[in-house]
Amino acid sequence: MTWAGSIFDTAGTPAERIARLAWFLIIVSAVTYLLVLVATGIAMRRARARRTQGDLADTRPETGKRLTRNVAIATIATTLILLVYVTATALTGKAIAWPLNARQPLTIEVTGYQWWWQFRYRDSVPSNWLTTSNELHIPVGRPVRVILLSNDVIHSFWIPELHGKQDLIPGHRNTTWIQADRPGVWKAHCAEFCGHQHAKMQFDVVAESPAQFDQWYIRQLASALPPTDSAAKRGHDVFVQRTCIMCHSINGTEAGSNVGPELTHIASRPSIAAGSLPNTRVNLGRWILNPQLIKPGVRMPPNALSPADMNALLDYLETLK
After folding, report:
1. CA 153, CA 173: separation in Å to the nearest integer?
2. How do the domains of the chain map onto residue ranges?
3. For residue 140, what are the contacts with CB-CB under 8 A and spacing of at least 6?
């Protein structure tokens, strides 16, 4: 498992503005800190010189005037710096609030769960709505309107390379936006402590060309193909006859529950368990048998499957691409 990326490795306009603000604050604060150190050093040197001369207190009137003047200058400078900070922050916040050219934004409804992510792509045609889990695809150069919801506790939606943090609050609808200016794959993370497995609540962000995004979208809308070989057919039967069908959905099958992540194309995802493990056959088997060993407190229960049933189930899940 890897942590979220850097706010300085920007890939989108909002993140770039946030990075500029961060650098501005860092540089001004560093310069101010150095000036304070220099002033402190000068004051210490003068105090040491007075002690050497046996003069422990400088009571001359001109010294008092100089100190008053210096304190006034420092106070004014501090006030101006704080005002500049506030102004720069307000201007950045206004600039990243919503893009002026967002005429046809892609709208995605994001719902946070303990501890995974659901993404619902909206479309003007209801039959083209798409629901997926733990993997977010977006087209490069197109603003994406993100509607944030929570199913349980407060979560936080954060893709450092694309935008700042925005909370998902139960019973409240928040809205933010992201835009990728270049292709790439990034790791996003929940940035608000949301329970025991907060650190294992990640998702993959894939920014691709509009043509590639459209192809991915069409593939995701397609229902799962019926299994053709006997092992995968048996795996399908294991899925629908055991507890799997009570929590998960696979388009084109009897499975239609929304308690857990949607699995129609799980074999095409790079990771499982909200970014906790690479999506390999071994890891998927470990996760199905006893997810509590990997993610203690997760709501998915252990599944006591025989080796034959487990292998058949894995054969079936590997066909869901």
Report:
1. 13
2. 1-219, 230-317
3. 180, 181, 182, 183, 207, 208, 209, 210
- CATH level 3 topology of 1-219: Immunoglobulin-like (2.60.40)
DSSP states along 145-206: EEEEEESSS-EEEE-TTT---EEE-TT--EEEEE--SS-EEEEEEE-S--STTGGG-EEEEE
Which two tokens mark 181? 């200016």
Of 11, 305, 264, give the one whose Cα is nearest residue 134: 264
Strands of 193-287 (E only): list them.
Answer: 202-208, 271-272, 277-278
**Domain 230-317 is classified in which CATH homologous superfamily?**
Cupredoxins -  blue copper proteins (2.60.40.420)
CA distance 83 to 315: 62
Place of tokens 């650190």: 199
Query: In the block, which residue shows the tokens 């704080």?
Result: 82
Tell me the three state secondary structure of residue 305.
coil
Distances (CA, A) of 248 to 21, 223, 240, 257, 316: 43, 14, 10, 5, 14
CB 120 within 8 A of CB 130: yes
C-alpha closest to that of 32 among 90, 83, 77: 77
**pLDDT tens digits, the chain, 321 residues: what are they?**
445 577 888 888 888 889 999 999 999 999 999 988 998 888 788 777 766 666 655 566 666 677 788 788 888 988 999 999 999 999 988 888 876 566 678 999 999 999 999 999 998 888 899 999 999 999 998 889 999 999 999 999 999 999 989 999 999 999 999 999 999 999 898 999 999 899 889 999 999 999 999 999 999 999 988 888 898 999 999 998 888 899 999 998 888 888 889 999 999 999 999 988 999 999 999 999 999 999 998 889 898 889 999 999 999 999 998
- The CA distance from 171 to 123, in Å, is 23
